[in-house]
Write a structure and sequence with these properties.
This protein is mainly α. Helix 1 crosses helix 2, helix 4 crosses helix 6 and helix 4 runs parallel beside helix 7. It is elongated, with a radius of gyration of 19 Å.
Length: about 200
């Protein structure tokens, strides 16, 4: 039992250290961009040795992929946790709201997400993560839109509505990242909700 506990503690400590390095990578990207976010810069911010980073990540590419996956999956988990209970309309309301939760959609995360998404155009590893996140998003959102818009609505229309919401969300995050001095989450949320209200039957509430 003692050995098992020790292994669990080591695993927990390792996971915590990885998360700390990923968070420093997020902050570094937000500050200096992808090209400026060198291993040296990240270790300097984290106050750790280069060797420690290499212990968890073989190179910068692997660290960037881990960071992108962390943002995508954490974002996804928030959404999933928010739609486990309630009516279909309430689930959709919470799903949409979760895209602009202040504690999560902070400037650094939004900036890092935008930068990594842009880089995914020429980085296969990042692109695969983007595709995975997009598929998970659509898989959850399409049934909600189908229930709210009505079963009689053509499936293609529902898919277009879901894709449109995703595109609008990405655009709003991009806009937020370009205007750090005007970081207005409430305004972005209002715009997103305006789109949803045009599609759904019933009011937000």
């Amino acid at each position: 039992m003692a050995l098992q506990k020790t292994e669990e503690e080591k695993e927990t400590k390792s996971k915590k250290r990885r998360t700390e390095l990923i968070n420093e990578t997020i902050n570094t990207i937000a500050e200096v961009g992808i090209s400026g976010a060198s291993i040296e810069k990240i270790t300097e911010r984290a106050g750790v040795s280069r060797g420690l980073v290499r212990y968890y990540f073989r190179n910068k590419a692997e660290l960037l992929q881990a960071t992108y996956r962390y943002i995508a999956l954490e974002y996804w988990q928030i959404m999933v946790n928010d739609i486990t209970e309630g009516t279909v309309q309430q689930k959709l309301n919470r799903f949409v709201d979760s895209g602009f939760v202040p504690i999560y959609a902070r400037r650094e995360i939004v900036s890092a997400w935008v930068a990594l998404t842009e880089t995914s155009r020429t980085d296969q590893g990042l692109y695969e993560i983007y595709e995975e996140a997009s598929k998970l998003y659509r898989k959850q959102l399409i049934p909600l839109f189908r229930a709210v818009m009505g079963e009689d609505v053509d499936s293609k229309e529902i898919e277009l509505a879901a894709d449109g919401l995703a595109a609008l969300g990405n655009g709003l995050w991009l806009d937020l990242s370009l205007k750090p001095g005007e970081y207005d989450l409430s305004r972005a949320r209002e715009i997103w909700w305006h789109y949803v209200k045009q599609l759904s039957r019933g009011d937000k509430g």
